[in-house]
Specification:
With 387 residues, the chain is an alpha/beta fold. 42% of the residues lie in helices and 16% in strands.
Length: 387
């Protein structure tokens, strides 16, 4: 691959935003994209093609398809991805490359560095490698160390993740900043004044990609324990099956649980609000997160939460105030917190929901996230104008 060569001045109005799916752009980055456009920037979306790609043009963005092997570790495919990023950035010459998810953050950042393009990264979560460890973790750390070396800003979604990267010499602390997750649209996600359609049965809902690392197994086993004492309680799963991930829950497992009458599988949706509205409590027994959007959306809608006392999750829940924290990978503790919640009176559950909404308003509004991004972009714009 050619090394870094002198380039013509960057087009100050162009920002490349890259992530591993078009779905991610449409569902999580719309507010940021609209803010960039309102400030006069030309936003180019770089992502693999999927069923959500057609919606990107409606956002007023130019779309560039870039194939990625999101779950694979093939050196040849990753080198090909690096080359495609390098060629694209060489052609586009943007003011900045803004990366989300692992492959764009690693290979897009390296390609941007080779082209002299400033980089802003978002490390929204550490993924399977950091949860499982081993050789995969050593490879991931080596790649991040190279990719982030010259980034102008590396945003993290919790201080535990940032500290892990700083102590591991993957990034310098002065390069880093903290974001309150992806930010929540407080108008779109708001408490409902309508009564639930089935107020007699407590409903626990888990919203996530169906991965074992999200604590799906613990949720199922806790459901068995709770049902022994409280047979009327309902348990629901909402999220993608058949995801490309080595920790994915199989469709066979889900069908077995549904067949037992243990859970209701709700499939997938582009609008989680009706499902959140119909639940009493949203549960996420994850092993580690960035800042889980499912919990923030639920809290914004006034729903109490139960989640694990791990990085990313603990930031969203103040124990016994807007929900409960439980031990990670501990089915008994999770079940005990569910039972405790189910035995609360309606007024106490309602107060938890109000506290959750207040917390999201204070700490996790989308406006906070957008302001931090715009500050970094405008700083780069100012530097480019002086050159």
């Amino acid at each position: 691959m050619p090394g870094r060569e002198p380039m013509m001045p960057a087009a100050r109005s162009k920002i490349i935003v890259s992530t591993n799916t078009s779905w991610n752009v449409v569902n999580f980055r719309k507010g940021l994209i609209e803010a960039l456009q309102s400030h006069g920037y030309d936003v180019v979306i770089v992502a693999p093609r999927d069923e959500y790609t057609s919606l990107i043009s409606a956002m007023g963005c130019r779309y560039v398809e870039l194939e990625m092997d999101n779950s694979g570790m093939s050196p040849l495919r990753d080198m090909a991805l690096l080359w495609r990023f390098w060629r694209l950035l060489r052609h586009e010459r943007p003011l900045a490359f803004v990366g989300f998810t692992i492959k764009p953050n690693v290979f897009g950042s390296i390609a941007a560095n080779l082209n002299g393009v400033p980089v802003i990264n978002n490390i929204s979560g550490l993924g399977t490698a950091f949860v499982r460890g081993g050789l995969l973790l050593r490879i991931a750390k080596a790649l991040y160390r190279v990719a982030l070396a010259r980034s102008k800003m590396v945003f993290f979604q919790n201080d535990d993740d940032r500290t892990l990267f700083v102590i591991g010499n993957l990034v310098r602390k002065e390069q880093t900043g903290l974001l309150p997750g992806s930010g929540i649209d407080l108008v779109r996600f708001t408490p409902s004044s309508e009564a639930r359609t089935n107020p007699g049965a407590i409903v626990f809902l888990l919203v996530a990609r169906l991965l074992w690392d999200k604590g799906v197994g613990e949720f199922i086993e806790a459901a068995r324990l709770v049902r022994q004492k409280m047979p009327g309680v309902r348990f629901q799963l909402l999220g993608f099956l058949d995801v490309e991930n080595r920790t994915a829950v199989s469709r066979q497992h889900v069908e077995q649980w549904v067949g037992e009458g243990l859970i209701e599988y709700l499939g997938t949706t582009d609008d989680v609000r009706p499902f959140l509205r119909a639940a009493d409590c949203v549960v996420l027994p994850s092993y580690r997160e960035g800042t889980p959007r499912s919990l923030l959306e639920a809290a914004a809608m006034g729903k109490p939460l139960i989640t694990t006392d791990v990085p990313g999750c603990r930031e969203v829940v103040d124990h016994a105030i807007n929900g409960f924290l439980c031990k990670a990978r501990d089915t008994d503790d999770l079940a005990s917190k569910m039972i405790e919640f189910a035995m609360m009176d309606d007024a106490s559950r309602g107060r938890m929901g109000v506290e959750g909404r207040n917390k999201v308003e204070r700490q996790f509004s989308e406006t906070i996230v957008i302001a931090k991004y715009m500050q970094q972009i405008e700083k780069l714009d100012g530097l480019a104008a002086k050159e």
